[in-house]
Amino acid sequence: ACTSARECTTARACTAARDRTVARDRTAARDRTAARDRTAARDRTAARDRTAARDRTAARACTVARDRTAARDRTVARDRTAARDRTAARDCTAARDRTAARDRTTARDRTAARDRTAARVCTAARACTTARDRTAARDRTAARDRTAARDRTAARDRTAARDRTAARDRTAARACTAARACTAARDRTAARACTVARACTTARACTAAR
């Protein structure tokens, strides 16, 4: 019985020791498992943190690259827009300058044509005025010459008429003088004839009386 009790005690002690060992092993295994789990969780957390940091770094780098790309694109677009605006402004200025030069040339040509036309008209008017003046002077000279010729003709006609009148008057005076002389001669002849007739009559009367 004592042996059995010892064996039972020993068995119990062995069982307790084995239980303690099993419990210690289980605790150690649980601790190792917990430590492994903690280590794995820490590793996962560290990997997740590294991944998150890498992702954040990559996202930040991507954002920076995207921002740089966007800024470069905006700069390029702004430069292209500025260059296009400068080109458009230069083209507009060149077109405006060409239009202004063309307008100035057209206005200068029109002014020159107008001046030439005015000069031609002025020359024609001056020539016309000169011709009109020459014609008027010629007409005045011709009129003066005609008037002088008419005056000379009138004076000559008056002189001729006066001369004819004087000649006619002289002829009439001579005729009148001749007529008066003829009348006087006829009167004298008649008087002589009458005297002769009276004398003849007296002689006949004397003869008859005798």
Describe the protein's architecture and organization.
With 210 residues, this protein is mostly helical. The radius of gyration is 85 Å and the shape is rod-shaped. The mean pLDDT is 87. 99% of the residues lie in helices and 0% in strands. The N and C termini lie far apart (290 Å). The chain contains one helix and no strands.
Features:
210 residues
Number of helices: 1
**Radius of gyration, in angstroms, nearest whole number:** 85 Å
Question: For the residues shown, what is the average pLDDT?
Answer: 87
Structural class: mainly alpha
Regarding quaternary structure, what we see is single chain
Could you list the spans in which at least 5 consecutive residues all have pLDDT below 50? none
Total beta strands: 0
Distance between the termini: 290 Å
What does the main sheet amount to? none
Indicate the overall shape. Answer: rod-shaped
SSE arrangement, N to C: H
Helix share, percent: over 70%
Strand content: under 5%
